Here is the input.
Amino acid sequence: MTSDPRAVRHIVVMGASGAGKTTLAQGIVDATGWDFLEGDELHPPENVAKMTSGRPLTDEDRWPWLRSVGEWISEREAKGEPAVIACSALRRVYRDLLREGREHVEFLMIEVPAEELHRRLEERTDHYMKASMLQSQLDTLEPLEADEPGVTLRSGGDEGQALADALVELDLQGRDQAGRA
Here is the structure.
């Protein structure tokens, strides 16, 4: 735990399914030692069942899940602990909910060409998100706006380069595990 409030950061690695959110978030965690949440783990069983059957989620499906993710962030915020969260956070209103009352939340949006996302999802065998649902996510995805805290990272698929770029963009290179320079 850190006593420096400027060092407390909650980085939400966001984007469409297949963008590499979990891989990149885990890389940031490995570099910083911060807490990690795979946001998908907080989906209620109904959401998982719906996606497993090939049906995209609606806003009504997402709100309880996003509130759970926000509560997890609030727990870290209350303890002054930095964290990295992998969460699609596709729309501005979802991101606003994640920031509500949480001053240290910022976003790292990963942009990957749709063809590459589709290819990755086609190759997945261990995830409920199917390639057939990708278009619904792309249709829902809203880019970060200028007044949202965060950065957009365009990724060509090289995981090592994406992590190096993310650490630079987030000013995390050379930080200790509490987030101090």
Q: What stands out?
A: The domain at 5-169 is CATH 3.40.50.300 (Rossmann fold). The beta strands are 10-14, 35-38, 83-86, 105-111, 150-154.
